[in-house]
Amino acid sequence: MTSLSEHLDATFAALADPTRRAILARLARGEASVAELSAPFDISQPAISKHLKILERARLISVAQDGQRRPRRIEARPLAEASAWLEEYRAIWEANFERLDALLEELKHEPREVGGNGGKKPAKRKKRARQETER
User: Fold this and answer.
1) Number of domains into which the chain is organized
2) Residues 8, 66: one domain?
3) What are φ and ψ of residue 62, in 5° steps?
């Protein structure tokens, strides 16, 4: 059995190529034959076939049997898994940004000292800012 990590690796590797992303965008509109998928690209049929194999191995597309045709169609599950994985990190970054915004707002309302007292006040601010972002 393949782990989620391996599935994500295959998904992101497949999505790293602009040709494969364009193929997925086309398949999002509906199934298509290899000839239909290769039409917009100025690359050879074997090159398109290699891209399709990578997308198939990543489970991003599947092959149907329709008489003599073998149309490809997009599969939603791997994209949903990748999206869920990314969503976890988006939530973490949003929380970090909210804490940073709160700290900046607090610093904005702190009275500022005019003149230099050896830089003690700014040093405390930097230390507090570092502590807040490390949480």
Assistant:
1) 2
2) yes
3) -130, 165
